[in-house]
Design goal:
two-stranded antiparallel ribbon, 2 strands, single chain, about 0% strand
Length: about 325
């Protein structure tokens, strides 16, 4: 039985990776000027002519890479939050983490004309500060998942109000740029945006892998985990820190792309039900979701290019309504 579960988990991972590769190739190939797949491969291997190389490597590859990394970070962050707090609403874009990153980034951009790496650092700091505030207010002896979510929703609403106030005090052009970022967009992506996020993930992913060794015990409840010898407080804090940092660096790179973290974990758990928190499938699902959504935003929705956050919202909002309706029927969230 255990071997069959591992085989299914491995199969799901391979299928998701293959789908991700296929969608990425299509995204590199299709555009205002279509590039045949053999020329895409030639550009990636350095064998294409300069014109194809410019289109594929300079124009399209940064956008695809940024979408992959942002989606993986959001998917993994959402899976960590939902598994740790044992609540399907525990997602960084629902409980105020993304709102904290957005408020800090807008404040830094509009108030101090910050951009580039400094703006990303401001977004990450905002995510960490909002998470610290939620944790402090929700903590009463121990951290309850439902209390964490409710406090997070309240703080997220307050931070959104701050962001809206800052936008009303800014110039029209500045507000338009900020609103585009707040929607979650990969438009105009460059390799300069990819490298900082890639570097952050190279640090965070190993840390998450180490911290996640205690996750399955924590999913059984604090008392049970403590009985199994798990250092509950330290493990919980490490996992929360990783989840917040993943959401923060992803938000810093592309803005708060809505509902990716929220929907990826349940999809991954359905695909691989015996994989526990399904962290790897959730990360792959997030990368695939953002890549497909961005392709749809560019080529499939009317004649205009929409921010990727518009498409992910169209996917996530109905799921949130269904989840709330289901919770109302059953009397619980989950």
């Amino acid at each position: 039985m255990r071997r069959a579960r591992r085989a299914r988990g491995l199969t799901v991972g391979l299928v998701l990776a293959a789908a991700l590769l296929a969608v990425s190739c299509v995204a590199l190939s299709v555009g205002d000027l279509d590039v045949p797949l053999r020329d895409v491969i030639g550009a990636l291997t350095g064998a294409a002519d300069p014109g194809v190389h410019f289109i594929v490597i300079e124009l399209r590859l940064p956008r695809v890479l940024l979408g992959l990394l942002v989606g993986a970070a959001f998917g993994l962050s959402g899976a960590l939050f939902q598994a740790l707090l044992r609540n399907p609403l525990a997602s960084p874009d629902v409980i105020g983490i993304s709102q904290g990153a957005a408020a800090a980034a807008v404040m830094a951009s509009l108030g101090f004309a910050v951009s580039g790496i400094a703006l990303s650092a401001a977004a990450l700091a905002g995510a960490l500060l909002s998470a610290a505030a939620i944790h402090a207010l929700a903590r009463r002896g121990h951290v309850s998942g439902a209390r964490f979510v409710l406090v997070g929703v309240g703080i997220g609403a307050a931070l959104s109000s701050i962001t809206s106030y800052l936008l009303t005090r800014s110039q029209v052009a500045e507000a338009q740029n900020a609103l585009l970022w707040l929607t979650g967009s990969l438009n105009g992506s460059t390799l300069a945006q990819v490298w900082p996020l890639l570097g952050a993930l190279l640090v965070l992913l190993p840390l998450t892998a180490v911290a996640a060794r205690d996750l399955e015990a924590l999913r059984l409840g604090e008392d049970t985990a403590a009985g199994l010898g798990t250092p509950v407080a330290r493990s919980r804090l490490a996992l929360l820190g990783c989840a917040v940092a993943l959401a923060g660096v992803a938000t810093a790179a592309a803005g708060p792309v809505a509902f990716v973290a929220f929907v990826c974990a349940p999809i991954a758990r359905r695909l691989a039900p015996a994989s526990g928190a399904a962290l790897v499938p959730a990360a792959l699902t997030g990368a695939l979701l953002v890549t497909v959504a961005d392709f749809a935003a560019q080529h499939l929705l009317w004649s205009s290019q929409f921010p990727v956050g518009v498409v992910t919202s169209l996917i996530g909002a109905p799921y949130l309504l269904w989840l709330l309706a289901r919770a109302n029927r059953t009397g619980r969230l989950g």
